[in-house]
Amino acid sequence: MNEARLEELRMKTISQINRPYYMEGSVILFDKKWKKRYLIWKGMVLYFYDKKGSKDITKEVYELSKDTTWNIESDTKEKKNVIKLKGKSEVIILVDESITLLENGYNQFKQDIETERKRIEMEQSKMKEPILLSWEEVEKRINVKQEKWSSKEVQTLLKELGKITTEKYLYDILCKILNGWNEQEFIDFFYKEYCEEDLEDMGSFLAGSNKDSTTIQFVFGNDEKGAHFIANIYIKIYKQYEIVWSEIARCLLVSLASWKLTSKDKMFQIITIDLFNLFDPAEIVTFLHLYAEYEEELNICLWSSLPEHIQFYLKEITHGWKKEQINSMISMITLMWSWKSDDIEHLKHILI
């Protein structure tokens, strides 16, 4: 033993040092007939002696293996309960007062097996420790391909880069490799295949922030064109997959919040107004109410005070509506939003 290891052991208390399990005691063993034996259980080996203190080398040795099982069974012939240890071979011991010691030994053996398994797995995982590539290396791999990326090529690239690298630069990667994709291509791969028709999950591939970054990146641009692109994806999914309104609304609300878009942002207004073409006035009011509450709770905006951007937004939503539709919307807001009468009158003045 080298000095470093010896010093390490000195630093540990006796209870911390991992030693092989050891127990001894009298048992009754069955081998063609019942025999009294003195058992010494050491680590993974059971030694059976004729008597305690025997210095003879015993031939009655049972070695435990990883697949060894423990069963307590009733021997109908002998009318006794027995312990059967089954592995490469079998040993049968009578159940008596020694059972506690035997159970402790077997439990310790299984625990040691599990500890060893975890140790091996840990060592193997360390050997396969994923490598974090630099952005320059990732960009170099991406730039090798000049043509448009197919969905299969996207999947292959993400797999080759590995989880740790992909998580680090996900939105930088997506902005580059999805350039030139249309809405249907995005739906077919990310919504249908990659996210298995999970609409909320799909939203995380339209925009988000890289690991260790707070900057939100929109994969298809953070301008009007990008906003219409996102809205068209939700519209197409709504029509093609016959998703219920409430699911579209719920997932869109989650995505808008995670993208840190507020009612003041042009992208928010474009995405929602485009989608409102699918909704009836009651659904629109419900959606707006949920987002208004969200913004109020976070002190982002108090919609009832009708700041300029909210006035503009509501006018855009109701543009082209008939007077009866606008009055219906105001009535629903009066019932649902807990606005003061002065705020409602102000709203009427703006919209009618």
Structure description:
With 352 residues, the chain is an alpha+beta fold. The strands form two sheets. A seven-stranded antiparallel sheet has the order 4-3-2-1-7-6-5. A two-stranded antiparallel sheet has the order 8-9. Mean pLDDT is 87; it is low at 5-18. 21% of the residues are buried. It contains 14 helices and nine strands.
Any idea of the CATH class of the domain at 17-127? Mainly Beta
Supply the helix-strand structural class. alpha+beta
Using DSSP, what is the number of strands?
9
Biggest pleated-sheet summary: 7 strands, antiparallel
Average predicted local confidence, pLDDT: 87
The arrangement of helices and strands along the chain is: HEEEEEEEHHHHHHEEHHHHHHH
- Gyration radius, to the nearest Å? 35 Å
